[in-house]
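Quick one:
INPUT:
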């Protein structure tokens, strides 16, 4: 399961100018995609699965999936996975899950 939410801190930068003062005006958004793999009581295969999602390459790579269509089907001008944080156990709905946050930057002109 994945939950998409604004990233902590400043998550929108408005009125960014591209290519000088007469360039296009853009906004940059930072989102956090939280990947929940399995309940904490699951075995080591859960860690292997989460690691495959976090890999920069491979068929299960979330980074590769996002960056293979950087416009996300035409919804944005670009999207880039910039990092990962919080690898470990995370409570959601009163249940502890093995999880991790992916940080994604999205630009819209």
């Amino acid at each position: 399961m994945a939950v998409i939410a604004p990233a902590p801190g400043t998550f929108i930068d408005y009125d960014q100018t591209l290519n000088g003062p007469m360039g296009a005006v853009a906004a940059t958004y930072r989102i956090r995609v939280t990947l929940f793999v399995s309940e904490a009581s699951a075995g080591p295969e859960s860690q292997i699965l989460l690691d495959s999602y976090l890999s920069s390459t491979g068929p299960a790579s979330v980074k590769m999936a996002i960056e293979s269509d950087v416009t996300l089907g035409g919804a944005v001008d670009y999207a880039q996975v910039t990092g990962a944080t919080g690898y470990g156990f995370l409570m959601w709905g009163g249940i502890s899950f093995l999880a991790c946050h992916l940080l994604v930057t999205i630009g819209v002109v």
